[in-house]
């Protein structure tokens, strides 16, 4: 019930391509879904987040698509750049009550120049 | 504003020893959460401290403990180290006031190697 399943484990994309990372959750009480980006030697940093009252959120080249009925959400990186090469983590949380983040296992993205 | 700082950055310990990791949150942040990051497991929540009280706890054995001081700095202790405790330990600070969501700001982590 507390798991967040993330796929793929690794992803290689050509420069200018679209990177897609998927996550699925089980606990319907989750109501906040952030994505984090982590570069080697650094801690994760918040990239973009969504709440279940919207189906899509876009910030620059980064878009979250959210499917509440399927309990899935995904990160799309448009026009992927070599500088996007990093590990991406999805997460889920409840905004009320026991507020803690459950993270996916991460996706290592490599964008080829 | 300075970010989250963690000390030490690297640590090598032997099985059976204990270790203490330190985290200084962003100034003004009163919540500190700890995570264990390992390849294939992602980030696993250890515990959260807010105003010197443990507010949430993950599914880790009692060998993992923590505390928070009045200046919001936090320490995490692992006793009787096992090889499987080798990981990157991340600390995240959060304002935790007002309305959620409370964005978490992560430190660079402490890389613990147990031999």
Summarize the structure.
With 113 residues, chain A is mainly β. Chain A is built from no helices and eleven strands. The mean pLDDT of chain A is 93.
Task: Characterise the protein shown here.
Chain A is mostly beta strands and 113 residues long. Chain A contains no helices and eleven strands. By secondary structure, chain B is mainly beta. Chain B is 0% helix and 52% strand. Chain B has strands spanning 5-7, 10-13, 19-24, 31-38, 42-50, 53-57, 64-68, 74-78, 87-94, 105-106, 110-114. In chain B, a hairpin with a 3-residue loop joins β4 (31-38) and β5. Chain B is globular and about 45 Å long. The mean pLDDT of chain B is 93. At the A-B interface, β5 and β10 of A face β5 and β10 of B.
Highlighted features:
heterodimer; A: 113 residues; mainly beta; six-stranded mixed sheet; five-stranded antiparallel sheet; 11 strands; 0% helix; B: 115 residues; seven-stranded mixed sheet; four-stranded antiparallel sheet
For this entry, what is the oligomeric state of its chains? heterodimer
β-sheet strand percentage of chain A = over 45%
Helix proportion of residues of chain A, in percent?
under 10%
Task: Based on Cα principal axes, name the global outline of chain B.
Answer: globular
Annotation, overall tally of beta strands of chain A: 11
Instruction: Work out the largest interface and the residue count of each chain.
Output: A-B, 26 and 24 residues
**Low-confidence segments of chain A:** none
Low-confidence stretches of chain B: none
* Fraction in helix of chain B: under 10%
> Topology as H/E string of chain A?
EEEEEEEEEEE
Distance between the termini of chain B: 37 Å
Which structural class matches the secondary elements of chain A? Answer: mainly beta
Q: List SSEs of chain B in N-to-C order.
A: EEEEEEEEEEE
* Tally of separate helices of chain A: 0
Mean pLDDT of chain B: 93
Roughly how many Å is the radius of gyration of chain A? Answer: 14 Å
Helix count of chain B? Answer: 0
**In one word, what is the shape of chain A?**
globular
């Amino acid at each position: 019930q507390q798991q967040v399943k993330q796929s793929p484990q690794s992803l290689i994309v050509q420069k200018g391509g679209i990177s897609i990372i998927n996550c699925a959750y089980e606990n319907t009480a989750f109501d906040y879904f952030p994505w984090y980006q982590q570069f080697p030697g650094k801690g994760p940093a918040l990239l973009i987040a969504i709440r279940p009252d919207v189906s899509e959120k876009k910030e620059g080249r980064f878009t979250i698509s959210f499917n509440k009925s399927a309990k899935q959400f995904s990160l799309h990186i448009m026009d992927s750049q070599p500088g996007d090469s990093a590990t991406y983590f999805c997460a889920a949380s409840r905004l009320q009550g026991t507020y803690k983040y459950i993270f996916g296992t991460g996706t290592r993205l490599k964008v080829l120049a | 504003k300075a970010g989250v700082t963690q000390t030490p950055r690297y640590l090598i310990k032997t099985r059976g020893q204990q270790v203490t990791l330190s985290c200084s949150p962003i100034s003004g942040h009163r919540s500190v959460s700890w995570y264990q990051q390992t390849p294939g497991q992602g980030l696993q929540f250890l515990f959260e401290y807010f105003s010197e009280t443990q507010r949430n706890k993950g599914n880790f054995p009692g060998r993992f403990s923590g505390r928070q001081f009045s200046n919001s700095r936090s320490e995490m202790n692992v006793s009787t180290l096992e090889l499987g405790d080798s990981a990157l330990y991340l600390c995240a600070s959060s304002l935790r006031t007002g309305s959620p969501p409370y964005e978490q700001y992560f430190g660079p982590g402490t890389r613990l190697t147990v031999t």
